[in-house]
Amino acid sequence: MHWLFVTLRPTVNHVVITPQRNIVTRTWGSSVGRKAIVAVTGAIFLLYVVAHMLGNLKIFFGIEAFDAYSQHLREIGEAVFGYEGVLWIARVVLLSALVLHVAASFSLWRRARRARPVRYQHRQALEGSYAARTMRWGGVIIGLFVIYHVLDLTTGTLNPLPGESSAYTKLVASFDRWYVALFYILAVVALGFHIRHGLWSAIQTLGGNSALRQNALKGLALAVAVVITVGFAIVPLSVMFGLVR
Ligand code: HEM
Question: What confidence category does residue 29 fall into, taking pLDDT thresholds of 50, 70 and 90?
């Protein structure tokens, strides 16, 4: 069959013409390109997650501070983009990044699986497959969590205080149920594992991993993950233990 495609390829004076590929097909078409897509979209999430975690800590400044912050998110750039305009731009960017992140990771995973039909034998490779499994399942847990989370605290659909209650009262009402607080804590622990491994792989992909700096960079990825996990988990924990009412 191969000879058929060879003879059908377009030629000029017997020189084979390779069709021009634009930057999108070139990036998606190579595994390095898809790894870069995962890394860049991952960096967008990391920035969002850090900003969100810092914003959440406003809960310790009281109800007025937290609700004012929630209101402020809707009013940023109002003069140019209208009420909630910037928020909607951020939502579209995050959702597009999510689609690309999942599609590129999934396609890389499928490619690796096709290339390796026989299971790993030695230790280092086993560790690699453990990390990949943790990333896959961690990603699924985080995805399900975000869906629940938006229905809980943004739309209020699954919140005990739906309707027009403030961001602060919705948050406290939600975490007053210990099993919901626990679910949030488990989700942010899964997020921590995902960030630690994701950051570490991204550093390796970008070539910043000389043998000398390897341990320092691994430590940095772990530190970022721990700070983010603790920074998020402290909010449901504080409601559970009555420090935030
Ligand atoms: C204990 C941890 C968390 C708390 C207490 C929390 C709190 C909140 C609150 C109060 C809102 C509503 C803000 C408002 O409408 O003014 C919100 C929205 C949101 N959070 Fe979280 N969050 C947590 C973890 C996370 C994590 C880990 C992620 C992502 C991985 C995340 C992603 C989002 C998203 C996407 C929205 C919707 C933004 C929008 O469309 O308006 N949150 N969060």
Answer: confident
